[in-house]
User: What shape does this take?
Amino acid sequence: SQQGEEDPQALSIQEGENATMNCSYKTSINNLQWYRQNSGRGLVHLILIRSNEREKHSGRLRVTLDTSKKSSSLLITASRAADTASYFCATLGSNYQLIWGAGTKLIIKP
Amino acid sequence: SQTIHQWPATLVQPVGSPLSLECTVEGTSNPNLYWYRQAAGRGLQLLFYSVGIGQISSEVPQNLSASRPQDRQFILSSKKLLLSDSGFYLCAWRGAGGYTFGSGTRLTVV
Assistant: This one.
């Protein structure tokens, strides 16, 4: 079942601009993960933020987590054409399966 | 290093035909394995997960079944495909560093 909801569903920006995607979830979590999926391909793990963390950086990625609002955001700075993909947030359910949102489709225009 | 193999990459099958998708993991033992399905334009849905040989848990009742005949082999099957079985199927395993996904199988039922 899906409990995460990404916002927006689709985002189109110019290369070089920053892209921000949001994710909301419903239950308590141990961690929240962000993944990228290039069209019709497998998923790539981007970053994991634990419930006791508020912000985490990895290269051009910045993830924030607000457990009081049950929400997370993924910021991609200085976007590139290669960042065009769908981005998913996922939380950890029982038996360690991931519970996914519907994803944000990001298009970077050259 | 751990790797995950999933095949075939694409598959076109007629309605009513059987299905067998295979996933194998290398470089680890007794992994937790997962089958996900992604319908067009939507997020991922957990279908099955397995914590060991012969142990299968089904998340969503449907026309599919899964088996784990060996420690590092996970198979998704159907006796008779339906049109609604079309989608993108992903195998994944959970390691200490998070989840790793296979490259996926795009199944089109015609």
The two ends of chain A are 36 Å apart (CA to CA). The mean pLDDT of chain A is 87.
